[in-house]
Write the structure tokens for this entry.
Amino acid sequence: MKVLKFGGTSVGSAKSIKIVADIILQYQQQQMHCATVVSAMGGVTDRLLDISQEAAQGNEEYKERLSELEKHHFTAARELIGVHAQSKVFARLKTLFNELDDLVHGVYLLRERSPRTMDLVLSFGERLSAYLISQYLNELGARAEFLDAREIIVTDKTFNNAKVDFTATNQKIQDYFRDHEALQIVTGFVAATPEQETTTLGRGGSDYTASILGAALNAEEIEIWTDVDGVMTADPRQVSTAFSLDAISYIEAMEMSHFGAKVIYPPTLLPVLGANIPLRIRNTFHREFPGTLVSKNPYASTVHQALNNAKAPAVKGISSIKEVAMLTLEGSGMVGTPGISSRLFGALAQRGINIIIITQASSEHTITFAVSPADAEAAQRTMSEEFANEIAAGKIIPPVAERNLSIVAIVGENMRQTPGISGRLFIALGRNGVNVRAIAQGSSEANLSVVIAQRNLHKALNTVHEAFFLSEKKTLNVFLVGIGLIGKTLLQQIAQQREYLQKNRILEISVIGIANSKRMAFSETGLNPGEWQSTLEQVGEEADMQAFVQRMKEMNMPNSVFVDCTASQDVTEYYAEVLQSAISIVTPNKLANSGSHQAYQQLQMAARQAGVQFLYETNVGASLPVIRVIQDLKDSGDKIYKIEGILSGTLSYLFNTFTSEKRFSDIVRQAKELGYTEPNPREDLLGTDVARKILILAREVGIPLELQDVEVENMLPPACMEANSPEEFLKALEAADGDFTQRLRQAEEQSEKLRFVATLEDERATVRLLSVGADHPFYALSGSDNIISFTTSRYRDRPLVVKGSGAGAEVTAAGVFADLISVSNYLYQ
Ligand code: ASP
Ligand code: MG
């Protein structure tokens, strides 16, 4: 014997009732004996509540609602029942609706709807649906009978939420089924007192009906057919990657359904738990799917054995309560005083206030608990009254209720005795800047709950879900500003590498927001990086940096990274705010790090405090490893004596190409034409950019310099400074040609070469045109390469040299990309 139960959506229309009938008939063909419990048609219970409320308020519109409800049932009946049986079925439905009409009219006249009356009103939902379905099954040739559960389930008089008398009920069920061989279609939810007054078992109570029946009949399994694929790892509306579980235990199901994931009505589990009857949650609209099996010990089930799961996953699901309020009883008067908690919770219980979680630290200084927000005010009042004396004496602080909080809980029986679970939970939350306000774990260890700010709920659920269920998959949510040459190339590279990273690094880089100077666009599910242009045009809005940052913060996505590919000072002004919001930053923009030393330090601190990354390897030498070399040297205990570098691709090119046969200004002119210089080459030749880079390296080494401390040699004649255009500048530069040629000749006489070198030594940073000999690593440089040499206590005689292409969109974007990968390694380490 199996007990089947079909919920409101499963019997919500003629179309779904046909599927339900098909499922039932299939079991019949397999000679499986089934009892079937049904809910009211979807939404009907709510509509009955509304109708009676309107009637009780004297609002005549209830009549219209009621006739709509009648039409709804008749429409379904017309589609299901053939002409020959219609008159009989319609007559019965009409009788039921006449009774309901009279009843609601009574409510209207009396302006009163007692719980007792309401139960009778609500019972019509299930009585109508079960009758209709039983008749439809007969239509299909099955021998089905309508069974009004008021004949078999006996309860007390707690209307709306009646308590079952199991002794009487079990007897009645067994007697009834002994005498009735036919397929029974039973009304869920409704029951009756011994005096035959109609009661109900609480909202969602049809599940409970099924389990009462299953336990009484010692069914081999109960199938709860609903509209989802069973019990999911998390609420799929919050966590898009949630998936359904193949098996869980009764305890886990109870923990899960207690907390938000309303797949099963919690009391349902009690009768089956005692009788050890497995329960399966299935999807009427996805019949081939096996659903979730709820049983006593799912870990020993064949499913798990077949999967060869020696040890089932410890955490089975994540549930949440969206809104709670937290109250704290706090004060010196509590320490070592017995009876405080008894008074507190006694007083709360007396007011009927339900406590969701409780925590008390061993210092005994505070007791914190959470309640539903509807109870917050009453709880606060109760505390103030109960402890009025202590508060007056200053021994207890006047309590306040904190709102806008949520609870997230991880659930799983195997969490018991599995170390590291809470560690993983808190790391996941911490890395994403989610502060934990309170923690509770029952000593059953089947549920670990944390209280967090409500605005972080979505992010927390997703990060925690990822940490426990998708440790095999990582995501990075990227917000990119600046789609110039570098930004554009980065988007291309992300698009190209997508498949590789998914496959080899199980890493998904989602571009959630983009902005150029004109427009910006966002998508929570990710934008196509290959189509950024059309995206900005079609779904974009006007760009606004402040709005961009605001949006990014509001979206509050886990593993967020802000990528700044602009060269703008304005954007860097937001860095601190971004980091403080627990969002990592990756950028080639060096303006933030080469501003004041104080600002530099503040950003480092902000990143550390928020537990996020601030990476800027491309500030110096594009993707050449420079910053990370310094960090590695320092971390491994080396001592850096000197850093020398040719840190500008442009200046590298100019002096690598300069020969005594050519004029220096011609070399510059030619480089400008090739696009190797800034629009005005003066910017390059002033050496400011190089100064910023050596400044950043100095700071990384730990030397607190300011930009004005960097000594930069001025190679330009005064007229160059006054030139108003690139052309004028190049003209003025000719005045220096003689000087440059002379310096070059002098160098050549000593078999040396001219190089524009930045040096950091003895806490001094300089940027100069130097003459270097053949034994110097910079002597043999060519093209526009960058080169950096580190002289350290370990690399004393033969310095550590890094050399290669140090400019250009390709390598810079690649460096930004590599930093992004570092962020994901950090987040998922
Ligand atoms: N029809 C009732 C309700 O909506 C009982 C049930 O469907 O489980 O709460
Ligand atoms: Mg670099």
Q: What stands out?
A: The radius of gyration is 37 Å. The first strand starts at residue 2 and ends at 6. Residues 7-8, 39-40, 45, 125, 188-189, 203-207 surround aspartic acid (ligand 1) (CB under 6 Å).
